[in-house]
Amino acid sequence: MIEKEKLEAYWKENQKLTAITLAIWFIVSFGAAIMVNALNNISIIGFPLGYYMGAQGSLIVFVLLIANYAKKMNRIDKKYGVEEEE
Question: Crossing angle of helices 58-80/4-26, nearest 10°?
């Protein structure tokens, strides 16, 4: 059985990673929408940056967030000995 202190440390690290991931998600989701007028002054391949962030940029960031979360969570699982068996 895994010790209580080890499980608490695992949970704390898990919560920290989740909070950071959600903070980045929030900033990308709502930050781009709030700053759309300023972003639209910049053009990428003929499209305003605000439009680009809504159509493509935010989706790319979200996929990268998911990949990063999975990778780091696997490391945390191995660190605390709770990884899934393959």
Answer: 170
